[in-house]
């Protein structure tokens, strides 16, 4: 790369860091990339760090020593996240979203890349201090959420299938009981998809009683994986605590009321905003 003016270098360094979250980058690598002294690079990083923290973009951590450098950790300020979630809640309260069984139509929201990017940043911020090796979701609507979160955590994504695909080779399959319908269903995961003893973050779009997520937890035990966290975009608040199969999770929104007769829907911010 040709030598840049400082203003251009600041812009390029910012983009470089944003594209490489949770990656340790040495001062030497920056100095060689921009053909600048380490002292100048350090001053630039101090400016970027200040702006990131003031704007709620994330944190820039400096690691001292010969093997040190800087690492960018994406963050989302609670006030900024709450504003975005309140807007999502208002959209979810639209009466024509109501589906049989008290479910909400969410596919259009999940299909918006910009919106999912913000949701992914919220999940990444919520679990930024957890040691995670991989993000796991179940097909299909959880996939955009999982990839958006993975972008900010710089992690791979593993998708649990409803049916085994012959193109994925041998797989582990289990039966599980859906928490809402009480029906026995099947899910599978290719043996090559997940290393044993991985620490896993489960991401899903909607949780009623938690049967699907509990099924994923049981499936992951076959790989001796440890569930380090569970994140759901919307949880149902109409399920009694005793009926819920899962209690340790982070939700961004909570469906608190569904009146099928009047088609009234009430959605509030989830437990992430209560801590």
TrEMBL record:
Domain Phosphoribosyltransferase intervals: 113-243
GO terms for biological process, alphabetical: negative regulation of DNA-templated transcription; negative regulation of purine nucleobase metabolic process
Keyword field: DNA-binding, Transcription, Transcription regulation
SUPFAM superfamilies per UniProt: PRTase-like, Winged helix' DNA-binding domain
Domain of life, per lineage: Bacteria
Any one GO molecular-function label of the UniProt entry: DNA binding
Domain Bacterial purine repressor N-terminal: 5-74
NCBIfam families membership: purR_Bsub (TIGR01743)
Subunit structure: Homodimer.
Similarity section: Belongs to the purine/pyrimidine phosphoribosyltransferase family. PurR subfamily.
Protein name (Swiss-Prot/TrEMBL): Pur operon repressor
Organism: Cohnella pontilimi
Gene for this chain: purR
